[in-house]
Design goal:
The chain is of the alpha/beta class. It has one domain: Aldolase class I (TIM Barrel, Alpha-Beta Barrel). 46% of the residues lie in helices and 16% in strands. The strands form two sheets. It has an eight-stranded parallel barrel, surrounded by seven helices. Strands 2-3 form a two-stranded antiparallel ribbon. The protein is globular. The protein starts with a helix and ends in a 12-residue tail after the last helix.
Length: 253
C-alpha cells in the first residue's frame, strides 16, 4: 500500500505546475519557487508565474527541463483578444514556454460566444509553435456542466493545447464535477491536455483527478504533455508522503 502511495506521489510531482501568483510576489520568491521545483524525487513539470518573472525563472531553471508558464488575461478573463495576444507575445519574449490564458468567461455567460473563440485563436496565433497554450475556463464561474462542456469544446477547437479548470482566484475552483465534461471534451476532440488547478492541496484529492482521467482517457494518456496539476501547497503534501519534511511556506492554488 505504501509503495503505491509513493508511486502516485512521485507521479504527481512530475505532473505539477508549481505555482506562485500572489500579488506581492518578488524576484526572491520566484527564485525560491525555482529551487523548490527541483525535488529529491524528481523535478516538477513547470513553474507558473506572472509574466514579469518569466525571465528570472527561465534563467534559474536553465538545463533542468522544467518549463516556464506565465499567465495572461489573468485573473479577470476579459474579452479583449488583441490585449491578450499582446500579453502572450510579451510573456514569450520574456522567456515563457507555456501560456496560461483566461477564457473570457464573463462574455461567454452574457451570451457572447464568439468572444471565446476569438480570444483563444488570438493567443494561439501569438504562441505559434513557440509556446504551449493552456486555456483557463474558470469552471466555478461557468457553473453548469453544459456551459463547461461547451466552453471546453470552444477552446479546443480554437487552438488550445490544454484546457484548465481555474485561476484559483474565485470562490469555487477545481472540482471533479467540472473536470469530467472537460475530459470528455478532450476525448471527443481527439487531442488536447487537461490541467486541474485551484484548491488541490493533498494527495488523495490529486489522485481523484488522476483516476477520473484514467477512466475517461486511459492510464497511458497520463503524462506531463497531456496532464497537469496547478498548485503550490500540493508539493509539500507530496513530499510528506515521500518522507520529506522541509516546509514550503506556500499558499495552495
Amino acid at each position: 500500500m505504501q509503495t503505491h502511495v509513493g508511486a502516485r506521489a512521485r507521479q504527481i510531482v512530475g505532473l505539477l505546475d508549481l505555482t506562485s501568483l500572489n500579488d506581492d510576489d518578488s524576484p526572491d520568491a520566484v527564485i525560491d519557487l525555482c529551487r523548490r521545483a527541483q525535488t529529491p524525487h524528481g523535478n516538477v513539470a513547470a513553474v507558473c508565474v506572472w509574466p514579469r518573472f518569466a525571465t528570472i525563472a527561465r534563467q534559474r531553471l536553465a538545463g533542468t527541463g522544467i518549463r516556464v508558464a506565465a499567465v495572461v488575461n489573468f485573473p479577470g478573463g476579459g474579452d479583449n483578444a488583441d490585449l491578450a495576444a499582446r500579453e502572450t507575445h510579451a510573456a514569450i519574449a520574456q522567456g515563457a514556454d507555456e501560456i496560461d490564458a483566461v477564457f473570457p468567461y464573463h462574455a461567454w455567460l452574457w451570451g457572447n460566444r464568439a468572444a471565446g473563440a476569438t480570444l483563444v485563436a488570438a493567443c494561439r496565433s501569438a504562441c505559434a509553435d513557440r509556446a504551449t497554450l493552456k486555456v483557463i475556463l474558470e469552471t466555478g464561474q461557468l457553473g453548469r456542466t453544459r456551459e463547461i462542456a461547451a466552453a471546453a469544446r470552444c477552446a479546443l477547437q480554437a487552438g488550445a493545447d490544454f484546457i484548465k479548470t481555474s485561476t484559483g482566484k474565485t470562490a469555487v475552483s477545481a472540482t471533479l464535477e467540472a473536470a469530467e465534461p472537460m475530459l470528455h471534451a478532450i476525448r471527443q476532440h481527439g487531442r488536447g491536455g487537461f490541467k486541474a488547478a485551484g484548491g488541490i492541496r493533498d494527495l488523495p484529492g490529486a489522485v481523484g483527478y488522476l483516476e477520473l482521467a484514467e477512466a475517461i482517457l486511459g492510464r497511458d494518456w497520463i503524462a506531463a504533455r497531456t496532464f497537469r496539476f496547478g498548485a503550490s501547497g500540493l508539493l509539500q503534501a507530496l513530499l510528506n508522503a515521500l518522507g520529506e519534511a522541509q516546509p514550503l511556506d506556500a499558499e495552495g492554488y
